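> @MW can you paste both from yesterday?
MW: sure, first one:
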Amino acid sequence: MADISWDLLKEELSRDEGRSASLYRDSLGYLTGGVGRLLDPRLGGRFRENEIDLMLSNDVNTAYVQNRGKPWFEAANTDARRRALLNMRFQLGNRLDRFENTLASVARQDWVDVGRRLRQSRWHQETPERADRIIRMLETGS
């Protein structure tokens, strides 16, 4: 293969295609993102497995950074409880911080109250199977 100035090519493509961190519809109406990346399934657009893994790793790291240092996260005294809280952050994003009373119960390690409060939440109503798994992890620590 001929020598190619890869960095220059990437600059040119970024200029010509544009860069977008969000999905948009291209000039033909197809879902696109990144630098001209066709993502519209009607034309076979998709993410590759390694891209999905990279996005997941980035998102998990973001969830960890958002939870790290919070008294309630530090009070989660088992791997399962920390994973449960990270799972919630992953799903809810910053909305997790609105669970003030629940998070106060986590900080006190009052796992019975945590479970009771979460079962009464809209989050539990919207995603009951996932919520039940996470609640069990918080209540039992495993």
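MW: second:
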Amino acid sequence: MSAAPFLECPGWCPVCEQDVVFASPDAWLRDGLKCSACGSIPRERALMRVLAELAPDWRRLALHESSGCSISSNRLREQCPGYVATQYDPATPWGHKHPNGYRSEDLEAQTFADETFDIVVTQDVFEHLFAPDRAIAEIGRTLKPGGFHICTVPIVRKAEGSVRRARRRPDGSVEHLAEPEYHGNPMDPDGSLVTVDWGYDIADYLDQASGLSTTIHTIDDLSQGIRAAYIEVLVSRKTLPSAVDLDGASDRRPRRRKPFAALARRLLG
């Protein structure tokens, strides 16, 4: 007889949008608490819930997902005609489409025109970037005014502050600042190196690098299978052009930097 699941409960899945049962074989719910119908995991359901709340019409929008390989990625691809999938694939010229259907793009130096997309999605990507500042700046460039970047990223350090684990030297080699850690990568059997252990200061870091405005959504809702560690959803929004009064003065006020901005810049560069 198989062992009873660690956790099992009925609910409604935001990914496949049907009544299901969520079950996990062990206490590591982040990867184990799966939907009985589609197999999605908590971070995917959290992202899809926030996406549906912020953009109920997402199926009619222009949506770019970088490095998508999840069940929720398949859902976006199937239901959104304006969905564009990209992968980091140096073997394919940047901006060209691979026979497998994805477009080859470097998230830190994209070939897309300015203001191309309504939404950009990344799922567990930003902990693997050597230049997350350039990546978020590029995302901001490619977003239309009013558009947003929605992402998941493990915020493992919480309020302690982000720490870089690896960086790229000028000659292209990698300098490890901590014991190397790798996550699965469908494009590379060796996996993806973790370059940053993020804390909550990621929101200010992204804002300072891009001019976007980031909010961290924390959800705990077992009725939708959204319960686990490190499943926060970040939304970085591109503001609409400022209104201008009759005298020609903009109503945009300078944003006050948060106290940890200098620390984030010093740690992450």
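> thanks! Residues 116 and 236 are 16 Å apart (CA to CA).
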